[in-house]
Amino acid sequence: MNLSGKRVLVTGATSGIGQATALKLVEMGAEVWALGRNGEKLAELEQRGLGGGKALAFDMLEFDAYREFVGGLPKMDAILHSAGVVENSPLKYFSMEKYNRIVATNQSAPLLLTAELVRAAKINQGGSVVFLASITGTSIGMKGIAAYAASKAALLGIAKVLALELAPKLIRVNCVSPGMVNTELVANATYISEEAKKADMMKYPLGGRYAEPHEVAGVVAFLISDYSSFMTGQNLTVDGGYCIQ
Ligand SMILES: NC(=O)c1ccc[n+]([C@@H]2O[C@H](COP(=O)([O-])OP(=O)(O)OC[C@H]3O[C@@H](n4cnc5c(N)ncnc54)[C@H](OP(=O)(O)O)[C@@H]3O)[C@@H](O)[C@H]2O)c1
């Protein structure tokens, strides 16, 4: 797959799936504009090379700063919304503050960023927007993470609506829903014990393991590429067969 000539904005590019995708896209010839908060990791990304793109520090929770930030960006051919957080919050300890923080990062931020990019005409005709959703919320439940599940399920609805709104501009909008992926998000998860993770992994039909970030990156690259030129409003599950059981 050759992505030369495509300029892609990647949020959450400093870790896990976002980072693996940013690097894969560069490998495939794309120019990547990588966003994150961690300055050291951003500098590392720029040093590795972003195909002529840049690594920029931006906190996705700074909603008031979006318009100015987007104004300073060049026109994009694709956006990957990968920035996301998960926090353990079983009903007993549920708080609106935690709920709002998770929804703000996972659901409101990608919607607002897309809106600002569209308003500023920063997505080229033929463009592709990809939201990283999850099987949690969309296909399965998991104890302790209601806010996360809600935010991820919402992305599927948002993608369907935006797909219709942006179709006249020939901009496509799709979701990728991974099962568990070996990233810091899962390594640091407090909603599942190490023992439960080992047992859970065994339930993944393809190899009894969690995915590696590059295995999700390939699917995102497909949705960004012209190979998926007639796909919009869809959700691709990347879970090694977990949800079909
Ligand atoms: N790993 C999984 O099993 C899994 C499964 C399904 C879906 N997903 C989804 O995939 C996406 C990526 O997850 P991951 O596993 O790659 O997670 P990760 O390794 O923890 O990376 C999360 C990324 O989000 C960024 N981020 C978080 N809050 C931010 C904020 N306020 N402003 C800017 N950047 C922010 C982080 O930036 P900093 O480095 O600056 O903190 C980091 O780059 C998430 O949306 C997640 O929900 C993951």
Give an account of the 3D structure:
- The model has no long low-confidence stretch (mean pLDDT 97).
- The two termini are 31 Å apart.
- Helices cover 41% and strands 17% of the residues.
- The chain has a single domain (7-181, 213-234), classed as Rossmann fold, CATH 3.40.50.720.
- A 7-stranded parallel sheet has the order 3-2-1-4-5-6-7, with helices on both faces.
- The protein has 245 residues and is an alpha/beta fold.
- Strand 4 (76-81), helix 4 and strand 5 form a beta-alpha-beta unit.
- The longest helix has 24 residues, at 96-119.
- The chain has helices spanning 16-27, 39-48, 66-71, 96-119, 135-138, 146-166, 184-187, 194-201, 213-224, and strands spanning 7-11, 31-36, 55-57, 76-81, 123-132, 172-178, 235-238.
List the helices and strands and how they pair.
Elements: E1 7-11, H1 16-27, E2 31-36, H2 39-48, E3 55-57, H3 66-71, E4 76-81, H4 96-119, E5 123-132, H5 135-138, H6 146-166, E6 172-178, H7 184-187, H8 194-201, H9 213-224, E7 235-238
Parallel strand pairs: 1-2, 1-4, 2-3, 4-5, 5-6, 6-7
Helix pairs in contact: 1-9, 4-6
This protein binds NADP nicotinamide-adenine-dinucleotide phosphate.
NADP nicotinamide-adenine-dinucleotide phosphate binds next to helix 1, helix 4 and helix 7.
Short description:
By secondary structure, the chain is of the alpha/beta class. It contains 9 helices and 7 strands; from the N terminus they run E-H-E-H-E-H-E-H-E-H-H-E-H-H-H-E.
